[in-house]
Design goal:
Elements lengths: L1 H21 L4 E12 L4 E11 L6 E15 L2 E13 L2 E2 L2 E2 L2 E16 L2 E13 L4 E14 L9 E13 L5 E15 L2 E12 L2 E12 L7
Parallel strand pairs: 1-13
Antiparallel strand pairs: 1-2, 2-3, 3-4, 4-7, 5-6, 7-8, 8-9, 9-10, 10-11, 11-12, 12-13
């Protein structure tokens, strides 16, 4: 079964690469690393890097680095976190490549629920965005569902399906910023690591843009507790 799952996931990555090569003018690609590492029984260290491209690789759209310290209000759940993000963006304006930076402070609350095979996560995030020539505040609500396929639980060597929706709302006008819908297949490598590959569609300013996403998740604790 292990070899079959590896072949399935290798095929998924090959398919994603093929789609990007064939439709690089229509699809972007996001390569993402997420770390959520226990510092103590209650505290965790969040760290992530996202390398976002207009095409498969090489035409940088955005580099995002985010970190923070969180605290579990209950055992391994109901996490409150305060963090900082640095964002380097290189958008096209009138056909010309430009560059700008953003510093971001954020506060968030994550709660998890489990119903049979269904693993649900809700995230509520408030952001204070220090742009080069502006300051904005934004609220984000994210809901994610992971469903194991070949096992009843998200144990090592489990293939799983993942979907999420996230809406972004400004605290001033215009209120609606964007919405993201995502679907993927993932593989649990071991109890602290998993990997996903999928597709995300983003609606922003009445425009749709698709992104292939490949994400690696690392939960190796820094403590033995």
């Amino acid at each position: 079964m292990g070899n079959k799952l590896r072949k399935v996931f290798l095929g998924l990555f090959t398919m994603a690469a093929t789609v990007l090569q064939a439709q690089k003018n229509d699809l972007g690609a996001w390569y993402m690393y997420f770390g959520n590492n226990k510092i103590s029984k209650k505290l965790n260290f969040h760290n992530e890097i996202q390398y976002r491209n207009f095409d498969a690789i090489g035409d940088l759209e955005q580099l995002l680095i985010r970190t923070g310290i969180g605290y579990d209000l209950t055992e391994n759940n109901n996490n409150v976190l305060v963090g900082y993000g640095f964002i380097l963006s290189r958008p096209y304006v009138n056909g010309e490549k430009t560059e700008n930076t953003e510093h971001r402070i954020f506060q968030q609350y994550i709660t998890k629920q489990k119903f049979g095979r269904f693993n649900i996560q809700h995230r509520y995030r408030l952001e204070e965005r220090f742009l080069e020539d502006d300051f904005r505040m934004r609220f984000r609500y994210y809901v994610n569902l992971n469903i194991p396929i070949n096992n009843k639980e998200m144990v090592p060597k489990t293939l799983y399906a993942s979907v999420y929706n996230e809406i972004f709302l400004h605290l001033d006008s215009p209120v609606f910023d964007r919405n993201r819908v995502y679907g993927a297949l993932g593989y649990v490598i071991n109890k602290n690591m998993r990997i996903e590959a999928g597709y995300m569609n983003q609606i922003q300013e009445n425009k749709n843009r698709g992104q292939i996403q490949i994400g690696f998740y690392n939960n190796i604790p820094f403590t033995k507790d």
